[in-house]
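Quick question, first post here. What does this chain look like in 3D?
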Amino acid sequence: MGGRSRTALFLVMLMTFAGFVSLAADADGSKNKETCSSDSTEDCGCKQSRDKDSKKKDADEVKEADDKPKSEFYEPREGDTPYKRTNQMVYVPGGTFTMGTDKPIFVADGEGPARQVKVDPYYMDKYEVSNAEFELFVNQTGYKTEAESFGNSFVMENYLSEEVKSEITQMVASAPWWLPVDGADWRHPEGKDSNIKDRMDHPVLHVSWNDAVAYCKWAGKRLPTEAEFEFACRGGRENRLFPWGNSVNPKGQHWMNIWQGEFPKENTGEDGYTMTAPVTEFPEQNKFGLKNIIGNVWEWTQDWWEIQHTPTFKDNPKGPLSGDDKVKKGGSFQCTIQYCYRYRCEARSQNTPDSSAHNLGFRCAASELPSYLKGSEKDEL
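> Answer (accepted):
Ran it through. Tokens below.
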């Protein structure tokens, strides 16, 4: 891994009880330096925990290289980017709703029990953060993502070129379609021979929780809490699977980007996409006007992961004070009812804060609308 001495913990979120497996041996029969932990033979994503000492060394190197950012906070300027802006926010009125469910599909994920939760009014990004928006952040600040610092990230085998696959000597025994790819990062989603030239309006990928927090801070925003995300997803509807109701394809139409076909062999792309879709694609998924709040990419939230919930009323919960993993919500283009049925509003999963992957992105929230977004004349800023 670029000469770095570190241990990567690759956790696959699955449907049953926890267990441990190891990565396959190198071609010469020796063990890889990385280890893998897994819950079963079925996964919904991957989790990579970097060696802290190596991470600190890399972080110090990045700090030294990027110690003179152009700006610490977004300052709108005409001509900032040639791409159409997608950083608009919608108002979410807040209120009390039923979070979780008493009919969990993945009990081990802590989907239940159902409990009454109150959230204050807030704002939510209408769209997932796109490559264009993230590029603006990087250009203004000189930020370097953790995937870039560590030199690799995880990608599903289906999306890799034969050249990239020929250089990989590792795989996850229980989920061999997830591969650690050298050179995979937000600019090169499928490895060194890929780019985002024609995907600037698609969601940014390979961003860790730490990267997402840095972006949101720059934008004068923050990550949503898990409760805020789920409230926004439900759109005022109680006891419904999806933001719009219980039908996967309302009125026979596709309203989200998920996997069609036999997983993991082939995504037939019946919804129009075999990988990510533009952040502006598909109808608004509920009355709040949000797009792709489920499907397309998993999205980071503020909260530390926990699975022990009580049915008692909670007022603006923010999760545990500490933990090992962060909550992600919404599912991705790799989710399917056959395998990873986690694109439901109450569904949830987890990753370490430094994890990155080909199906993981984010959107921001804010308690108050940033000043540069106020006023109809600034809607496109």
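Residues 1-42, 52-69, 376-381 have pLDDT under 50 and may be disordered.
The first strand starts at residue 9 and ends at 12.
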